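User: I'm writing a short report section on ligand binding and want a predicted complex to refer to. Could you take this sequence and magnesium ion and write out the structure as tokens? A short remark afterwards would be nice.
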Amino acid sequence: SLPGKVKIVEVGPRDGLQNEKESVSAAVKTELVDRLSRAGFANIEAASFVSPKWVPQMATSAEVMAAITRRAGTVYSALTPNMQGFEAALASRADEVVIFGSASEAFSQRNINCSIAESIARFESVAKAAKQNRLRLRGSISCAFGCPYQGEVPLDAVADVVGRMRDLGCDEIDIADTIGVATARQTQAVMLRAAREFRLESISGHFHDTYGQALANIYASLEVGVSIFHSSVSGLGGCPYAKGATGNVATEDVLYLMHGLGIETGINLDLVVDAGQFISAHLGRKGSSRAGNALEAK
Ligand code: HMG
Ligand code: MG
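Assistant: Sure. The structure tokens for the complex follow:
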């Protein structure tokens, strides 16, 4: 049977907007985060403390974190690739920090400029500091289903990084399809392999929708007991270091699926549709959520 309730982590303000050609102002990002908080998300990825030379769109993260209205019960997360990022996240009062590695050596080099082993060594101090400061710690694993540079990624490579993230003390671990190539049975195989290394209830699925498979992969994940999913309002996003990858699965579409299945999310879909229309208007284009556009047209 499927889980009765899921946690949806809204990643649009980070994964979505990090990939926009035009930088979105801190004021617009702040309003987006606040609209999403009001919709009821228990977790919003709101910031990324990375090098502004690498990802200029995230340079205003501290401003955004200072300006948002924090809703009790919402965890605001920030990406932190190293101690410099951690210090910034701590100063901005993030509730959760995210260390992000990869199951692919080639992608690790392109994305964070170091090998997998070097990244884990770098994350050790971040993990320790997170514990000392009582922040939640999440680990994200890119290219768990395929890599734009090396192609296939073996199950054991994913399992190895899951184990390392577990040993660093991660509270939650994301299995990410960075380039949206996974299909349903493969998704189940990877999730089940990850679950041999880390408790299933704290494993999340992070699916980009490049090949239109994300909802099928989410359903396949539900079938094997995964109950945390990442999505982006209006399907915003991509990854600056994964050329051609499109956005995350749209939050509106995931909510429509979950609510149709009778699975509790705690999130108000209408308010998410409004937030999607808000950000799409700012970006000057139609949103890419099918459910969002259908509900808007009603
Ligand atoms: P590096 O060049 O190896 O780092 O970059 P460095 O330590 O040698 O520092 C070089 C410069 O960067 C220095 O500045 C540092 O101060 C600065 P300079 O002296 O040249 O003026 N710097 C920083 N500035 C601000 N904040 C920091 C920071 N760290 C160093 N935290 C580094 C290594 C990791 C920093 C770099 O490669 C980087 O920023 N990469 C970012 C990659 C990124 O953000 N990718 C997108 C997010 S991951 C993703 O989207 C995938 C995910 O969604 C899951 C999925 O779908 O797969 C999570
Ligand atoms: Mg991503």
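A remark for your report: The beta strands are 7-10, 43-48, 75-79, 96-102, 136-142, 172-177, 203-207, 228-231. The pocket of magnesium ion (ligand 2) is lined by residues 15, 176, 178, 206, 208, 239 (CB under 6 Å).
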